[in-house]
Amino acid sequence: MAVDNKTQFDSSLMRRLHSLHLQSTDLQGQLERGPRQVAAGEAIVAQCEAAVASARQDVKKATIACDEKQLQLKSREDRIEQLKAKLNTASSNKEFDLLKEQIAADVQANSVQSDEILEGLERIDELNEAVAAAEKELAEKTAEQKTRLKDVDARMEVVREGLEHVRSELEKCEAQVPIAVRSEYKRLTLLRGDEALAPIEDGSCGGCNQTLTTQMVDRVRLGFLTDCPACSAWLYNQA
After folding, report:
1. pTM
2. Which of 108, 113, 164, 205 is the most interior residue, by most CB within 10 Å?
3. Domain parsing of the chain, residue ranges
């Protein structure tokens, strides 16, 4: 809707209105960022909790695998002793040689498995260190989140108070908007927020940088309501 070019609208009032709208936008943005910061912190803590759970699971799997190898080793050692006992009762050289071969194979297998068990135990130590590191990071991030929550809560309280004050001041100033354009002002600011108003900066619209004619600048200087031909923002002088 085109503005009434006969309507008087003091630049000082519009400047104050714009300042309050900018403050309101900034404070509202801070209110919205607060919960996002908390949510981001919660996500970090959740990631750390998942990392701890995963690290502990790795230790559990490695321990089970190592325990199984140790059981296999013990079982094979018992079998070696049984085979050695059978050597004394071998009924033939062939049976004796076969037993010796089985014993040698089991001894060799146990040697390999012993090395694997040692490697497994070393791996478990490394995984336990990873668990400790993950738990440490979780504790740190949890503490950071608690601090963040306190900081955000305190800041949000200040922001809410500030926003309430700004809205109160805005309501007072809006009561001074000329009646002829008050409904249009409300429509524009509801739709565009602080972008509904713009200062004149070096002969241009401060909202979109559109170069203004001398006539437009003069109209604003004389106190007539004038909108930008490009972005339709209502224009005012900065001082």
Report:
1. 0.74
2. 205
3. 11-237
